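F.,

This is the one I mentioned.
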């Protein structure tokens, strides 16, 4: 199998994790008990921990290695500002697509980076694919629940997540064909995505992980970061 096909397959599998998360939310029909709410908050925190691990262990190291410190900082801040603008637009819409938009905001630049990096550093590419899949699973779960709460039919919600998974192979293919020999531009994309992810973690994910009089859900963030750290250690 050619490298391009490997990239497309990995990115699509990572994207299908969001659909799998939506399927899990569709099949999960138990009542909203206090114990279930603790579990849901823990799942959200887990996704946040994995995102932080992706930033700290996979994305930012590429930026540090390939960008001038001033450019690194400027691009990172620009990514955070872009996520703020998207979040502001979603808040004004009051729609049921905020979680889906956040999923795509993470998924697309990371898939581009996966395609660009994979040709010359397969270990980092595999690590990125694993990060993307693990973070997409809880994000797909939460996006489906949000769409259903907004009145969207179950089949439409699942079809939307399945369609969103196609963005992965498209973005990764472009990254592989266009950016594989441009490490500075690839690092800039990864750094830009990092700024956006850090904003989303502290604006959207961390608040959802917190529960009054419950101390256990944030442990999901510790578990998620530990999983990312373990994956990095095993691959390197």
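My design for it:
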């Amino acid at each position: 199998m050619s490298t391009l096909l490997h990239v497309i397959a990995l990115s699509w599998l990572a994207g299908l994790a969001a659909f799998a998360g939506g399927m899990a939310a569709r099949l999960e029909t138990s009542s909203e008990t206090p114990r279930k709410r603790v579990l849901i908050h823990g799942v959200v925190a887990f996704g946040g921990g994995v995102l932080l691990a992706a930033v700290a262990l996979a994305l930012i190291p590429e930026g540090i290695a390939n960008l001038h410190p001033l450019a690194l900082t400027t691009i990172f801040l620009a990514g955070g500002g872009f996520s703020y603008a998207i979040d502001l637009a979603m808040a004004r819409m009051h729609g049921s697509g905020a979680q889906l938009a956040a999923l795509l905001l993470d998924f697309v630049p990371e898939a581009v980076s996966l395609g660009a990096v994979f040709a010359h550093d397969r270990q980092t590419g595999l690590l990125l694919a694993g990060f993307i899949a693990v973070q997409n699973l809880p994000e797909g779960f939460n996006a489906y629940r949000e769409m259903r709460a907004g009145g969207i039919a179950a089949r439409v919600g699942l079809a939307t997540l399945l369609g969103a998974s196609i963005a992965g192979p498209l973005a990764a293919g472009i990254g592989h064909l266009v950016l594989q020999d441009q490490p500075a531009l690839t690092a800039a994309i990864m750094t830009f995505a990092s700024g956006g992810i850090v904003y989303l973690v502290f604006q959207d994910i961390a608040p959802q992980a917190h529960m009054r009089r419950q101390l256990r859900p944030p442990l999901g963030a510790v578990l998620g970061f530990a999983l990312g750290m373990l994956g990095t250690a095993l691959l390197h």
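The chain has a mean pLDDT of 83.

Talk soon.
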